[in-house]
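in:
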């Protein structure tokens, strides 16, 4: 059996054991429990997917002070204190070792009844298929000596960029973003009909500039090149070639611009990953990729993960 799969199997078994020991979980009373996840964001979203897909658990409560201001489906810690339910179980979903104690203390101080369970071992890069694909790709490119810089367009706080910088430690990493969210009228003006679903959701899904804090710490910051502003204007002076690019642009025109700019600069065997291809909230992304592939005779494949990431490989 594959060692990684075996390790994951052991981890899942351990997780069930932790739940059983912590809350007396038994099959017959499982339906009585109301589950929750705190905090939300990149790791919280992964946690919700893991719980639903691997354990059949649909969280009743998603808790995050910042996101609750914009998303009616997310509640604040203050609202949580009003929940009177001894069968409530809240999972802490974060791999931020530097602030994990702070996160744990915050949620435990607001749970009047119920149980708080550490989910830290579950929510990490080993449970993210896109990150695993990135790691394998980086190892392969290193083994064959593939040249070229790497880039991400659509960065936000740099959650995925951290992994890019980690697994490609010696490569220059360009980060393109407004770093101001989607509140700008110029961004909204570039949206087409297919982007309307995203436009409605972005008002409360965390795409506000108020939610964008400092860039997350990078393992190799000396290789980072920040390109703040509107893409592709910020890329006009970039002459590098690229072996790996991650596009997380959310809307049609931005995705079109990203594909057009980077495709001509990709080295042979270089890879572009496009986030949200199968995301129902971002149909403009799929439209942009489909049109680009049809016009340029490019094949597309997909990662088996919840984002529906599309993968393009540059041949001769």
């Amino acid at each position: 059996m594959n060692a990684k799969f075996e390790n994951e199997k052991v981890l899942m078994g351990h997780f069930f054991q932790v739940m059983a020991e912590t809350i007396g979980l038994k099959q017959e009373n499982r339906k009585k429990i109301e589950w929750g996840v705190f905090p939300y964001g990149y790791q919280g979203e992964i946690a919700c997917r893991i719980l639903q897909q691997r354990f059949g658990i649909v969280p009743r409560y998603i808790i995050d002070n910042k996101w609750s201001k914009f998303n009616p489906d997310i509640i604040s810690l203050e609202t949580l204190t009003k929940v009177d339910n001894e069968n409530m179980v809240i999972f802490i979903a974060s791999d931020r070792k530097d602030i994990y104690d702070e996160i744990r203390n915050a949620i435990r101080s607001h749970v009047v009844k119920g149980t708080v369970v550490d989910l830290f071992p579950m929510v990490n890069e080993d449970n993210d298929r896109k990150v695993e694909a990135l790691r394998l790709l980086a190892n392969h490119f290193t083994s064959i000596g593939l040249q070229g810089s790497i880039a991400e367009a659509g960065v936000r706080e740099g959650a995925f960029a951290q992994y890019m910088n980690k697994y490609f430690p010696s490569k220059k990493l360009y980060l393109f973003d407004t770093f101001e969210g989607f509140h700008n009228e110029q961004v909204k003006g570039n949206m087409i009909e297919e982007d309307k679903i995203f436009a409605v959701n972005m008002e409360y899904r965390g795409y506000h500039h108020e939610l964008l804090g400092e860039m997350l710490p990078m393992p190799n910051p000396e290789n980072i090149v920040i390109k703040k502003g509107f893409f592709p204007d910020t890329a006009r002076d970039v002459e590098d070639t690229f072996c790996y690019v991650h596009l997380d642009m959310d809307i049609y025109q931005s995705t079109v611009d990203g594909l057009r700019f980077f495709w001509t600069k990709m080295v042979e065997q270089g890879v572009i990953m496009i986030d949200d291809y199968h995301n129902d909230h971002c149909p403009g992304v799929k439209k942009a990729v489909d049109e680009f592939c049809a016009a340029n005779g490019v094949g597309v494949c997909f990662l088996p993960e919840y984002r529906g990431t599309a993968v393009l490989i540059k041949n001769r």
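note: Residues 1-12, 203-212 have pLDDT under 50 and may be disordered.
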